[in-house]
Write a structure and sequence with these properties.
The protein has about 675 residues and is mainly alpha-helical. It contains 18 helices and 18 strands. α1 (about 125-135) packs across α7 (about 335-340), α15 (about 580-600) runs antiparallel to α16 (about 610-625) and α17 packs antiparallel against α18 (about 665-675).
């Protein structure tokens, strides 16, 4: 047995999952992430701001490594403190027990019924209905799928365009043979989860899911509430929230607008007209000189007032997801059932409950009158807290989104799938390795680059379970020693005597009697966090220098050093390697080799981090070959050894245009291969 699911599957902006494609890590550039610190061991939450206060991109806190204001790669989207079912918990509303179940594919009838297995319904009836509704988005689920579905090299946007065109041409969704690549299963250990119905190729897209709901994050900049692009100077005249222009004020917004108006973030038409009349009347009675002075002061006052109003709008972004959900539940029965069926954890003893009560529930119930049932509003908050994904849209905006089917993914620290997001927010779930039929389909709720102490702490606090996967139970973290400092006695790595116990004594892996308490280990992490905070992640010289200093205390593959090294590699993504000196090239090559070795142990071959690191490994090796840094026989072996990595990088980097370009690297590889072979 590995982990208790079902924590909801909101994996947010983790490097391995959340969908960030702009950098090695979800914070873009820099050393983002967390260091053991402050006795909390990180306590990484997202922007909700409680239980450890590792804010998802805005400030530095104790125990966090933050470069240029981002700690990134924390928990999912809106502050995953709502939690999930605990290790021995029970399913939530709508998780009722049902009758017989079937597994596998179903022929005819036009639905995906039968894609359920287990001891009973387990509350999956609504998800089975929802799965059926996703058929127009998943041509690959047909027994006779269109030919393009088997092409792994198609970009995500091309897959989406082909899917839309295919769906438009299809006249009917009844009487079709469906063979979905996964089924919903239920067990006491994992709760509701997804299981592969057939062997899945590495890189295969097994789910394309449009967002059930999208909403601006609580700490977003002024973005349009409809298309989520950066808003300039236009606001809805009724509620005061930001929009691109009048065209973005849709019928859907008008349903929300009637509620949001009660915040009083804009003056009524009558009041504005009355104030303008009074001002104009008084100005007309002044002398020209007095009028000019008064108009200047008036303009300053109006600017200050508008600035304050805009701040108030931003402050109330925190209620948008809840209001949008209430409206959607009122107008769509399936959405309402899904919200009740999704996992959530409403617990009055949690700090998150108190934060939600003050910032959301009281506002929605008392000021907006959008609901009179506080339990319902807390329920909605917990669903977003537990299940929301951090969604990077095509124009740089990051929003929160609910994807019910993807929320059923089970956690594993070395997951076999990863989420990608299109420019408009569709989620594509792709396998990152071969997945045999019958295997549980997994994702990672944390950042795989975190050490076990951090990952476990995050999962206990935000997801309410303890992960018992192979990596978590291994004191060496699959031989990477990602959480190990150096033994003060002999210099060997220090490891936890009981990796699943955050209070366990740490011992020398080399066998000497030196030990350290968990508090001492956390204290070292806090000290390192303070030394790194605010560092410029775009300065490779500073990053390399700091890493060398920290190696006096940390094992060479400690997660802080790996993050520094990953940030160093991120600085050369667009660098012409021919401009590097031989010494610089060899220094960065040594870093890339070290990082690549760690990543290969921690992540499957087709993850974003794997191929981004792989890209730099290939580039650096090709430049070393070009400079004749090795003998002919060795060069031939290296070229052959790079073949698989080149293919993997070419495949994955081609899925999203926001990923680094690999075309020139492939051409250089082909040219060098030809030169060496001839």
């Amino acid at each position: 047995m590995e982990n208790v699911n079902e924590s909801g599957g909101g994996v947010g902006g983790c490097a391995s999952n959340g969908g960030d494609v702009g950098g090695f890590m979800s914070g873009g550039s820099g050393v983002v992430g967390c260091v053991n610190g402050g006795g909390d061991v990180g306590r990484c939450a997202s922007s909700g701001g409680d239980v450890g206060k590792c804010v998802s991109g805005d400030s530095d806190v104790v125990g966090c490594v933050s470069v240029r204001g981002g700690v990134g790669e924390c928990a999912s989207s809106g502050g995953d403190m709502g939690g999930c079912m605990s290790s021995g918990g029970s399913n939530v509303v709508a998780c009722v027990s049902g009758g017989g179940v079937m597994g596998g594919c179903v022929s005819g009838g036009g639905g995906v019924r039968g894609c359920v297995s287990g001891d009973g319904d387990g509350g999956v009836g609504v998800f089975e209905e929802y799965l059926t509704s996703l058929l127009p988005h998943n041509a690959a689920w047909l027994a006779k799928a269109p030919p393009w579905c088997s092409n792994l090299a198609l970009s995500n946007e091309t897959v989406l365009a082909n899917t839309k065109a295919w769906a438009e041409r299809r006249a009917s969704w009844t009487e079709v043979d469906i063979c979905a690549p996964m089924r919903i299963s239920v067990s006491e250990v994992y709760g509701r989860h997804l299981v592969a119905t057939r062997d899945l190729r590495a890189g295969e897209m097994i789910l394309l899911e449009p967002p059930l709901l999208l909403a601006l994050r609580a700490k977003s900049a002024p973005y349009c509430s409809n298309c989520f692009k950066r808003a300039q100077n236009f606001s809805c005249p009724e509620c005061g929230f930001f929009f691109c222009g009048a065209d973005c004020i849709t019928a859907e917004h008008r349903l929300e607008c009637g509620i949001l108006q009660r915040l009083g973030l804009t003056a009524s038409h009558e009041n504005r007209h009355h104030e303008e009349s009074l001002i104009n009347d008084r100005l007309s009675k002044l002398s020209p000189e007095q009028r000019a002075q008064a108009e200047t002061l008036l303009q300053q006052s109006l600017s200050a007032s508008e600035h304050q109003r805009r701040l108030e709008v931003l402050r109330h972004y925190v209620v948008l997801a809840t209001v949008r959900t209430l409206v959607a539940m009122e107008n769509n029965p399936l959405t309402k059932r899904l919200i009740f069926a999704l996992q959530g954890h409403v617990n009055q003893s949690l700090q998150r409950y108190k934060v939600n009560q003050k910032n959301i529930v009281d506002v929605v119930v008392q000021r907006l009158g959008a609901a009179n049932n506080t339990e319902l509003v807390h329920r909605i908050c917990s669903v977003w807290d537990t299940n929301a994904f951090d969604v990077p849209l095509g124009w740089g905006t990051r929003v929160h989104g609910l994807y019910p089917m993807s929320s059923l993914l089970t956690h594993n620290c070395r997951a076999n799938t990863q989420q990608w997001f299109t420019a408009e927010g569709h989620l594509l779930l792709r396998t990152v390795q071969y997945v045999p039929a019958g295997a549980i389909i997994t994702t990672c709720y944390t950042d795989p680059q975190w050490a076990t102490l951090l990952r476990q702490d995050h999962l206990r606090v935000s997801k309410h379970f303890t992960c018992t996967c192979e990596r978590c139970q291994d004191a060496t973290e699959l031989g990477t020693f990602l959480g190990s400092s150096q033994c003060a006695g002999c210099g060997a790595p220090v490891v936890s005597s009981q990796p699943l116990d955050p209070t366990a004594v740490w011992v020398c892996h080399g066998g000497c009697p030196q030990t350290a308490t968990a508090k001492e280990v956390a204290g070292l992490g806090a000290k390192i966090g303070r030394s790194i905070g605010g560092m410029d992640g775009q300065d490779p010289v500073a990053l390399i220098s700091l890493a060398r200093q920290l190696q006096q205390h940390l094992h060479p593959t400690h997660h802080v050093l790996i993050r520094l090294h990953v940030s160093t590699l991120n600085t050369i993504v667009n660098t012409d390697l021919r401009l590097m000196s031989d010494e610089e090239l060899e220094t960065v090559w040594a870093i890339a080799s070290l990082v690549s070795g760690v990543v290969k142990r921690l992540e499957a071959p087709l993850t974003r981090l794997s191929v981004r690191v792989g890209r730099e490994v290939v580039r650096l090796q090709l430049e070393r070959l070009r400079r004749g840094r090795m003998m002919t026989g060795e060069a031939t072996d290296i070229i052959k050894g790079l073949s698989e990595q080149v293919n993997e990088c070419g495949l994955v980097l081609g899925w999203d245009s926001r990923m680094p370009d690999f075309t020139d690297v492939v051409q250089e590889y082909a040219a060098l291969t030809h030169t060496i072979n001839h």
